[in-house]
Description:
Layout: H1 2-17, H2 21-30, E1 35-38, H3 40-45, H4 48-51, H5 54-57, E2 59-64, E3 67-71
Antiparallel strand pairs: 1-3, 2-3
Helix pairs in contact: 1-2
Amino acid sequence: MFDQFTARADDVRNIYDSTDVEKATALLLKYGIDYIFVGQNERERYSSEGLGKFPWIAEEVFRSGETVIYRFDLGGKGGAS
């Protein structure tokens, strides 16, 4: 059980922190993630380079100050069209 938790925590870190778009996209698909939340905590915890990939792979659907929510959709902006 602990190993599963650790693996998932590592995957979350990779989704946010990795600059490898293919790796992040594969993990988003693996977990069926539709929305990506980027707020103050994420900006403090993860690199700006890693967070900078989201506008390229997902659609911004909400913004309030520094908080942004992206919608990930492979049929749209999230990878292949």
